[in-house]
Amino acid sequence: MKPLVTFIFGLTSFFIFVSLFTETVAEKDGVYIVYMGAAPKTKGSLRHDHAQLLSSLLKRNKNALVRSYKNGFSGFAARLSAEEAHSIAQRAGVVSVFPDPVLELHTTRSWDFLNYQTSVVIDSNPNPNSNSNSTSNDSGAIIGILDTGIWPESESFNDKAMGPIPSRWNGTCAKAQDFNTSNCNKKIIGARSYEDDETSVIKYHSPRDMVGHGTHVASTAAGSEVQGVSYYGLAEGTAKGGSPGSRIAMYRVCSPNNGCRGSSILAAFDDAIADGVDVLSLSLGAPSFFKPEITDDPIALGAFHAVQHGITVVCSAGNDGPDPGTVVNAAPWIVTVAASTIDRAFESDVVLGDNTVIKGEGINFAKIRKSSVYPIVYGKSAKKKDADVNDSRNCNTNSLDQELVKGKIVVCENLDKTYANEHMDEVKQLGGIGVVLIDYDSKGMASSFGTFPMTVISSEDGAKVLSYINSTKNPVATILRTTSPTKYTPAPIIAYFSSRGPSTIPKNILKPDIAAPGVNILAAWMGNDTAEAPEGKDPPLYNLISGTSMACPHVSGIAATVKSKNPTWSPSAIRSAIMTTANQINNLKAPITTEKGVAATPYDFGAGEVSPTGPLQPGLVYETTAIDYLNFLCYHGYNITTIKTITNTIPDGFTCPKESSIDLISNINYPSIAITNFNEKAGRKVNRTLTNVAGDGNSVYAVTIDSPPNLDVKVVPNKLQFTKNGDKSSYEVSFSAANPLKEDVFGSIAWSNGKYKVRSPFAVSSKRDN
């Protein structure tokens, strides 16, 4: 049985991925992406223009053009030498040229759990100016998903009670050997696939999902309601997506064993803009060790043009936590999503010979006795004669003595942070009958061990187990079969693997934006995955996996619902509504914490845990305008000539401010505030503008400031008045301190009129740029 992958680093193992990635971004011959900014308003034949540009520069006759981008933006992917790529980069109208990167892939209970904090009464039509006539069964919103494809036969994609496909849909349902137009319906209204490059290890030209990831993501975002779903009896309930009335358009940009190529991702963005999607969901991105400039980042570029066309773009934050500064997909026009736990656990406890019960986590369908009759041994004590002691503690390959392991439960430590299943495989082949793995970091995330008795415990509980083993001559224990209790406390907890802020590219934007369930999420799976099935069981129709990949579609579904209820709202208004209505309190009515039990900061979860209903009626929103994004590009260091190439919607007379510095990024109208290079002597001031979307008449909002003791925060004015829907009102925030800040500090600013609370987190750092 293939181990259940509990969070997704990529389509292949991490080390193979790193090798592929490093080779791709190196300066060498291969596929390059040539980005030429906005598509001209009179497009003509851009593909012909791109081919002509190539033929005028290349000395060889071989057809170099791989893809042409012509709908939302202009550019192409081509097979070039490093010298040819450098030559094209010098041409007028070319913004950037960069190697085609290979990016990585980063339910029933999760949606029920998200309502734990809901206290808002939802109006049937919260926006009085909305023209929407949508219903819960037919929202009309279209979610485009860039992923590994889709398994259309899953019951989560049935189109019962769904109305006609929206007339504005311009997409297509691709034909392939294993996929045709009959696989699309009123739920899956579009499916495209992007052919692998000629260097691909395995070529696969179909929208059908052969990995499972895309199917899981799609059903989490917009799956239809399906009752009686479970993972072999665990986590039983009703599966549904965040926006079950929304339509799905799948863009397969990731291939089995070949990764997610930037050229395919840009092609999918280009098609999705023309197809007419409302929301784009991307559970993938670059690894944290590679953070390209915005004009070298296919996701940032594609998202920029999508947002210009009114499409909300939601991306996963990455799985490289809990180290700081690991967040990816951090451009200010992207909604960046961190991962958190829900209130459902997968418990597989250890019972020691003295009747002590140790809480464990893991998924196993073991059939050993419940009574403690099985000998238990510490890996270190079962060391092979010439093995390294740390290898034996870790139960590494060739480190254990088979005679000391056979017929016993073995206690292993996860010192080198390997996948839990690797410890199981070693003990199992030596004749061991079970594994207790000591691994604090995996708290809250259950791996699947099939029918083998295995569980994971914390380091504190590990000390208790080792103490028991050392205290008796013949220690015994057993491992209980998994149960899945709900109402687990505390929840949510920020997942340890979830990538953290602060954002480094760009600076002065607080990322991630929001957190959502991403641990042990049950959702649809491809129906032929026999390798994923425990021994003696059929392939799972629904699977449990974890990652920010799973958190992202929760927010995408909410964004689609908000769009369907408020069809005139911009992507920035939707993002603001999601952020300013977030929760910071767990189900114990205490602050949400990290995996270490300390209070989470905005670097961990942005504005907080997403609310599924609050964004429908936030009261006020922060509109991040086109001018804000233009100023951002100026502050980030791009000149006006480059900016005019990137976008053709620049207002007449616009030019970059004379005082353009990266510190001024803090001043764009974002729903949160991030300040770096803070100087206590000079202080810092930022401005924000709020827009009334509640439709209330004469309404007054008063400010509440939550600030740390070593930072002085003032807001002027302290009250904002709105007389009608669409009214705008601005305020200024002043930050100062009597003494230098020794560490980053956090707080929030909230506006309330007694009915709505509009909260914005802030982070202030005195760290200087290198």
From TrEMBL:
<dbReference type="GO" id="GO:0004252">
    <property type="term" value="F:serine-type endopeptidase activity"/>
</dbReference>
<dbReference type="InterPro" id="IPR041469">
    <property type="entry name" value="Subtilisin-like_FN3"/>
</dbReference>
<dbReference type="Pfam" id="PF17766">
    <property type="entry name" value="fn3_6"/>
</dbReference>
<dbReference type="InterPro" id="IPR034197">
    <property type="entry name" value="Peptidases_S8_3"/>
</dbReference>
<dbReference type="Pfam" id="PF02225">
    <property type="entry name" value="PA"/>
</dbReference>
<feature type="active site" description="Charge relay system">
    <location>
        <position position="213"/>
    </location>
</feature>
<dbReference type="InterPro" id="IPR015500">
    <property type="entry name" value="Peptidase_S8_subtilisin-rel"/>
</dbReference>
<feature type="domain" description="Inhibitor I9">
    <location>
        <begin position="31"/>
        <end position="106"/>
    </location>
</feature>
<keyword id="KW-0645">Protease</keyword>
<keyword id="KW-0732">Signal</keyword>
<dbReference type="InterPro" id="IPR022398">
    <property type="entry name" value="Peptidase_S8_His-AS"/>
</dbReference>
<feature type="domain" description="Subtilisin-like protease fibronectin type-III">
    <location>
        <begin position="667"/>
        <end position="764"/>
    </location>
</feature>
<dbReference type="InterPro" id="IPR010259">
    <property type="entry name" value="S8pro/Inhibitor_I9"/>
</dbReference>
<feature type="domain" description="PA">
    <location>
        <begin position="391"/>
        <end position="464"/>
    </location>
</feature>
<keyword id="KW-0378">Hydrolase</keyword>
<dbReference type="GO" id="GO:0006508">
    <property type="term" value="P:proteolysis"/>
</dbReference>
<dbReference type="InterPro" id="IPR023828">
    <property type="entry name" value="Peptidase_S8_Ser-AS"/>
</dbReference>
<dbReference type="InterPro" id="IPR003137">
    <property type="entry name" value="PA_domain"/>
</dbReference>
<dbReference type="Pfam" id="PF05922">
    <property type="entry name" value="Inhibitor_I9"/>
</dbReference>
<dbReference type="InterPro" id="IPR036852">
    <property type="entry name" value="Peptidase_S8/S53_dom_sf"/>
</dbReference>
<keyword id="KW-0720">Serine protease</keyword>
<feature type="domain" description="Peptidase S8/S53">
    <location>
        <begin position="139"/>
        <end position="608"/>
    </location>
</feature>
<dbReference type="InterPro" id="IPR000209">
    <property type="entry name" value="Peptidase_S8/S53_dom"/>
</dbReference>
<dbReference type="InterPro" id="IPR045051">
    <property type="entry name" value="SBT"/>
</dbReference>
<feature type="signal peptide">
    <location>
        <begin position="1"/>
        <end position="26"/>
    </location>
</feature>
<protein>
    <recommendedName>
        <fullName>CO(2)-response secreted protease</fullName>
    </recommendedName>
</protein>
<dbReference type="Pfam" id="PF00082">
    <property type="entry name" value="Peptidase_S8"/>
</dbReference>
<feature type="active site" description="Charge relay system">
    <location>
        <position position="549"/>
    </location>
</feature>
<feature type="active site" description="Charge relay system">
    <location>
        <position position="147"/>
    </location>
</feature>
<comment type="similarity">
    <text>Belongs to the peptidase S8 family.</text>
</comment>
<keyword id="KW-0325">Glycoprotein</keyword>
<dbReference type="InterPro" id="IPR037045">
    <property type="entry name" value="S8pro/Inhibitor_I9_sf"/>
</dbReference>
